[in-house]
Design goal:
24% strand; 207 residues; 7 helices; single chain; alpha/beta
Length: 207
């Protein structure tokens, strides 16, 4: 009971901070903590925000890249507009949605892909974990060719079966690959963020 009270208190604290800071969700602080630790986004960058609803991560991204940057968000659920961001509705794994994103990029490379996407939860852990890992792999397959040399890829994972396989999948494409748990994540959650920095071009990989 005490642990449950402490967890709820912490959760409420982040919600209050989000509301006071003008963010749409407590999850905005996860990206802020990732940014503070790893400095993935800079002024003028192009950011792809995957699983962008309700818009908290897009708000943080816009703050980091400024008026000279570009933030494109994609989610199955529509959300209220975020000043400075283009928020699209669609399935990131759908080729038609992917084509729309590529069109909006207008030939520009992406500096950072930040993904907080999660599948619909059935409550059956093995099924949910398999679907989550497959979703991460599909986002990675789409996003990798869009990344500039030196770019970054951040995705939420749930600790368990398949995580090590995902890490091995992405490791050859980046100079550094680390796991990070923001303090804004719930203590009871198994979520962790995979931080992939300094995307390597095909030339560098072949060398």
């Amino acid at each position: 009971m005490a642990d449950h009270w402490i967890e709820n208190h912490k959760r409420d604290s982040w919600r209050k901070q989000a509301k006071a800071s003008g963010y749409r969700a407590r999850s905005a602080f996860k990206l802020k903590q990732i940014q503070t630790r790893f400095e993935l986004m800079r002024q003028g960058d192009v950011i792809l925000d995957v699983g962008s609803h309700p818009g908290g991560w897009a708000q943080v991204a816009v703050e980091e890249v400024g008026s000279s940057g570009i933030v494109i968000g994609i989610d199955l659920e529509p959300c209220q507009p975020v000043d400075g961001a283009l928020l699209m509705v669609g399935d990131i794994t759908d080729p038609m949605t992917q084509e729309r994103i590529v069109i909006e990029l207008k030939g520009r490379k992406v500096n950072s892909v930040v993904s907080d996407i999660s599948p619909d939860i059935t409550g059956k852990w093995n099924i949910d974990q398999a679907v989550a890992m497959t979703l991460v792999a599909k986002v990675f397959d789409f996003a990798l060719p869009l990344l500039c040399n030196g770019g970054s890829f951040v995705t939420k994972l749930f600790q368990g079966v398949g995580v090590e396989e995902i890490i091995e999948l992405v490791r050859p494409h980046f100079q550094t690959v680390k796991r990070f748990s923001p303090t804004a994540s719930r203590n009871s959650s198994s979520e962790v963020y995979l931080i992939c920095k300094f995307h390597l071009s095909l030339i560098h990989i072949s060398e």
